[in-house]
Amino acid sequence: MGLNNVSEGIGAADCGLEIKKKKKDDIIVALAGNPNVGKSTVFNVMTGLHQHTGNWAGKTVESAQGYASCGQQGYVLVDIPGCYSLHTRSAEEEVARDFICSGIPDVVAVVCDAVCLERSMGLVLQVLGLTKRVVVCVNLMDEAEKKRIRIDLHGLQERLGVPVVGTAARAGVGIREVYRAIDEMAGKQEGGTVGEWEEKNGDDAAAKLCHGLVEYGDDGYLEPDRRKDRIFTGKWTAVPVMFLLLLGIFWLTIVGANYPSELLRTFFSFLEGKLTNGLRWLGVPETLRSLAVDGVYRVVSWIVAVMLPPMAIFFPLFTVLEDSGYLPRVAFNLDKCFRKCHACGKQSLTMCMECVYLQLP
Prior knowledge:
Layout: H1 3-6, E1 27-33, H2 39-47, E2 51-55, E3 62-70, E4 73-79, H3 91-101, E5 107-113, H4 117-128, E6 134-139, H5 141-146, E7 149-151, H6 153-160, E8 164-166, H7 175-186, H8 197-201, H9 205-210, E9 214-216, H10 223-232, H11 238-281, H12 286-323, H13 326-339, H14 347-358
Helix pairs in contact: 11-12
């Protein structure tokens, strides 16, 4: 069943989200996009971090609303959940699709990754199948420039039939152009010209849409990543490197946490004695003193002493691995194995965290 058919019967009341307008003529913008394309950065730059958060009715999926203005025009931005598709396989995809279909948004701004444009185009085509009032924001143009990727934004705009704006949200580049594109599309009833692209080209629709529009540098923008891949995802090196690296992180986390844990236990024990003596000096009844010190204080201090040091070591180390691009490679290496258990490689990262906490005292 196509997305257009799915959208039938979904009304404004069905999305379960209250929109907070300041003025009657405010433009409501749904901010859509894949995960990790800088959608939240675009949202924060446009709203100045003035956001209202809450959950979609009946869903444990967080929403964020923010108010922005450019000149005399006001905008209500709704940051809908990041997803790769609108074919509803998860709560995030369902609420994203329902909100776009609800008729509430005046414009849908789809944020794309300039470094992996083809991957983002699948969602753009699906959104254009639901509404024609779309603005495509190709974000991370600065990262694309570093990797010597050149994108013909004008050519992409001609193929899509909707405004396409290049941005580098962290630097605030292109945001005013996004406002202008939103203003242009807000009053239109017709927009994109690619409603039949998916039907004609199937799974190759995104690839054919981007064909000839993305140009890579002569000296190979992917060469540094390919060198890493030969080591981190190579046939003979992937598993040994992954094993040694994760083993080193586990060792640093478990063994390294013993020293700060012992210091914290000593410190909290010292404070416990002082607190006990102070309560006795104040004449607090023994029952209340035991409840406060031997119960609440001792439990909380034990949890802090045991849990805080490994978290303070483990999560920064995992952040370094994430920023370096290694964690997705771990998920890739283990995906085939996990699929045999009807899971996916991304769950290996959760397993790593669980392994650390199973080793804690």
